[in-house]
Amino acid sequence: MDLSALLVPALLAVTAVVAMGRHVNVYDVLTDGAREGLAVLLRILPPLVGLLTAVYMFRASGAMELLAGVLAPVLTRLGIPPETAALLLIRPVSGGGALAIGSDLMAQYGPDSYIGRCAAVMLGSTETTFYTIAVYFGSAGIQRTRHTIPAALIADLTGFIAAAFAVRLLLPS
Amino acid sequence: MAMAWIWTGMVVLSLIFGVLNGTIGAVSAAAMEGARAAVELCFSMAGILCLWSGVMAVMERCGLTRGLSRLFAPLLRRLMPNACRDRETLSALSANLSCNLLGLGNAATPLGIQAARRMARGTEGTATDELCLLVVMNTASIQLLPTTIAGVRAACGAAEPFDILPAVWLASVLSVAAGVGAAKLFSRFTRNIRS
């Protein structure tokens, strides 16, 4: 039996049973939570319209291919597929931009292809670094951030390399 | 403001490359296509995103966040011993970590900021080693169920939207470990004002 196929149904059933055991009204909480999901969706839709337009134009013009070509020697040596070059560059700066490029890669190469999976794992294992740094230090009143940015970018780069490696290791296609 | 520059840059470069490469017709069509694709994507991932937001809300209500927080306290005491002497900082830190793990970004950020504010007291605008570490850990992703990405994969017709989970976990762990390691290493070379 495929264990990964068990994950989703088991997670749903276990959550429901545990919640009932703790006298949580599963159904009401679930629907309230789903409404929150809708709010998330409404929040990402407007930036996605702007960003996907730019990403589609960028790709159609041939600029995306050029960018991948320029960065290919470095990326191939790190084990990262060069097709994801634009995703790597935009990921630390813009969550919406990364989602736009990532979803474009998944649509173009297929969600179950090596590149599509790399894009998905890269999105899932990294964050919008500069946004997070700005929010935290901004609200804590910190001006001198010392080694935070270099350390955070090392974490991002490691995440990208590890994502490509993990897909090759765990999801051979 | 950064986004304004990136967006303008992409659109202007598309125009220039479109003219130079003779692909301007395709660029024009793509501009119309992109906006439609964005709305289509949101529609087709709406179901999975809403469902898992609901499931996460149920898990949260069952006390999963509180349980995880208790689990993380010993780890945090080792990573940030100074900050964790303050009970309230410790509880904000561990709740921040658990909410991040469950993908509750809206809940995680205020908790992390609360901890960061307490840790920044008396530092006169310079981050301490431990505050740098907290921010680095928050710039890395440790989400157990990346629901938005699973939603995009489902929208693109993936056979099993969640089959990337083990790969995401492995990449996340390596990325966080590299960030923590780098922060610990670099802190020896930059001046810490209060240790």
Write structural notes for this entry:
The complex is a heterodimer of chains A (173) and B (195). Chain A is mainly α and 173 residues long. Chain A has one domain (46-170). In chain A, 80% of the residues lie in helices and 0% in strands. Chain A contains eight helices and no strands. In chain A, helix 2 packs across helix 5 (95-109). The model of chain A has no long low-confidence stretch (mean pLDDT 93). Chain B has 195 residues and is mostly helical. Helix content of chain B is 75%, strand content 0%. Chain B contains eight helices and no strands. Chain B has helices spanning 2-21, 24-61, 64-79, 87-101, 105-119, 129-139, 147-155, 165-186. In chain B, helix 1 packs antiparallel against helix 2 (24-61) and helix 4 runs antiparallel to helix 5. The longest helix of chain B has 38 residues, at 24-61. The two termini of chain B are 35 Å apart. The model of chain B has no long low-confidence stretch (mean pLDDT 91). At the A-B interface, helix 1, helix 2, helix 5, helix 6 and helix 7 of A face helix 1, helix 2, helix 5, helix 6 and helix 7 of B.
Condensed summary:
Chain A is built from eight helices and no strands. Chain A has helices at 3-21, 26-60, 63-78, 85-90, 95-109, 114-125, 129-140, 148-170.
Strand segment count of chain A: 0
Sheet having the most strands of chain B: none
Residue-averaged pLDDT of chain B, rounded? 91
Radius of gyration of chain B: 21 Å
Q: Stretches of chain B where pLDDT falls below 50 for ≥5 residues? A: none
Note the total helix count of chain B: 8
Distance between the termini of chain B: 35 Å
Helix content of chain A: over 70%
Question: Oligomeric state of the chains?
Answer: heterodimer
What's the helix and strand layout?
The complex is a heterodimer of chains A (173) and B (195).
Chain A (H helix, E strand, L loop, with lengths): L2 H19 L4 H35 L2 H16 L6 H6 L4 H15 L4 H12 L3 H12 L7 H23 L3
Chain B lengths: L1 H20 L2 H38 L2 H16 L7 H15 L3 H15 L9 H11 L7 H9 L9 H22 L9
Helix pairs in contact in B: 1-2, 2-7, 3-4, 4-5, 6-8
